[in-house]
Structures are given as structure tokens and as C-alpha cells.
Amino acid sequence: MHIIRDYEAFSPFDNDILGNVIQLRQKDTNKQVVIKKFLYISSEKKKIVDDEIAMLILTQSNHIVKFLESFIDGLDMCVVMEFCS
Fold first, then answer.
1. Which Gene3D superfamilies match (predicted)?
2. pLDDT tens, N- to C-terminus, the chain (85 residues)
3. ∠77-82-85 over CA atoms, to 5°?
4. Cα angle value 24/42/10 (rounded, 5°)
5. Which CATH number covers residue 30?
6. Per residue in 49-85, is it b (16+ CB within 10 Å) or e — as a string?
7. Based on the structure, what is the number of domains in the chain?
8. Which of 51, 53, 63, 77 is at a distance of 20 to 30 A from 17, taking alpha carbons?
């Protein structure tokens, strides 16, 4: 599992309704990824984020952006997904 310091900022995207989306480069692999950061403070928001992560894990397919991992960074849950150019 990685932490946010394992990534280097590459390019910000527009904010999503639920979180911020950032294109980053994973330092150890030089791989470009997208991290979606969700505020992870209330039980309601935690449930929404946890449900989205569970859905991403269950729906792994060649036709859907791949979920790579998730981790907590301060008050945010970071969801790491493959970058599709």
C-alpha cells in the first residue's frame, strides 16, 4: 500500500461532486495514475466512499477504469485508479 508522498503531482482535473481528482505519477514505478480524494470525516460520507470502493473492486473489467488501491491521507480517502489517456 502506498501513501500520498509516494506520488508526484502531474496535472489537476476538474473537481468531482464528491471529491478532487488529480493526475499523479507513482514515484517507484513512474506510472501515471489518477487519485480521487474524498473528504472522509462523517459516517455518511465514509459509507458513500466505502460503497464506491466496493463497487470499483467488484466491477473490475477491461471496459472500466481499473481500481488500483485506496489509502487514508489525513481527513481524505484517496482512491487510486489507472490513468486512461
1. Phosphorylase Kinase, domain 1
2. 788 888 887 766 666 555 688 889 899 999 999 999 888 999 999 999 999 999 999 998 888 889 999 999 999 999 999 998 7
3. 130
4. 10
5. 3.30.200.20
6. beebbeebeeeeeeeeeebbebeeeeebbbbbbebee
7. 1
8. 63
Full DSSP string of 15-45: PPSSEEEEEEEETTTTEEEEEEEEE--SHHH
pTM of full prediction above 0.85? no
C-alpha cell at 19: 471529491
Q: Are 33 and 83 in contact (CB under 8 A)?
A: yes
Length of the chain: 85
